Amino acid sequence: QVQLVEFGGGLVQAGGSLRLSCVASGRPLSSDFMGWFRQTPGNEREFVASLHWGSITTYYRDSVKGRFTISRDIAANTIYLQMNRLKPEDTAVYYCARRRGDTTDYSDWGQGTQVSVSS
Questions:
Q1: d(CA 13, CA 33)
Q2: What residues does 114 pair with on adjacent strands?
Q3: What region, left, alpha or beta, does residue 75 occupy, with left being phi > 0 and alpha being psi -120 to 50 degrees?
Q4: Looking only at Cα atoms, what is the longest distance across the chain?
Q5: What is the pLDDT of residues 88-111, one digit of tens each?
Q6: Are 107 and 10 in contact (CB under 8 A)?
Q7: Which pLDDT score, from 0 to 100, does residue 93 have?
């Protein structure tokens, strides 16, 4: 099991930027997927972006394409979510998660970090 800790949430005005970081306690395997999810009160957690650790292939939900970028730092066992041109509807608690390549579910989760975007 990998421990995940997120950093970088906060309050920003619409149109602004934030960068979230997620530090893993151990190096993800090359077959792992690292992802970002978000959740608002009363709603289910939703996928935001993911990255295949070995190939660096990335995936995004449509509403963040062109605005958010997921990346990694191998030496630091860290993934990032650079969020630009933020909108009020991006307000949520953002979670980092890991999925083993041989499974379909994300099994390791961080504690979450709040992102609030004011209009």
A1: 31
A2: 93
A3: alpha
A4: 42
A5: 999 999 999 999 988 989 999 999
A6: no
A7: 98
Structure tokens at 43: 């709603």
What 3-state DSSP class applies to 109? strand
Encode 65-92: b = buried (16+ Cβ within 10 Å), e = exposed. Answer: eeebbbebeeeebbbbbebeebeeebbb
- The tokens of 77 are what? 């066992």
Q: Report the pLDDT averaged over residues 55-69.
A: 97
Whether 22 and 35 have beta carbons less than 8 Å apart is answered as no
The sign of the torsion formed by the CA atoms of 8, 87, 63, 66 equals negative
What is the C-alpha to C-alpha distance for residues 102 and 83, in angstroms, rounded to an integer? 29
Q: What per-residue confidence (pLDDT) applies to 42?
A: 96
What tokens does 65 get?
């394409």
Q: Kindly give the residue spans of alpha helices, DSSP state H, lying in 38-109.
A: none
Q: Which of 67, 38, 32 is nearest to 51 (CA)?
A: 32
CA distances in angstroms from 47 to 15, 50, 63, 97, listed in the order given: 21, 8, 11, 10
The CA dihedral of 22, 45, 102, 8, to the nearest 10 degrees, is -10
Residue 79 β-bridge partners = 22, 72
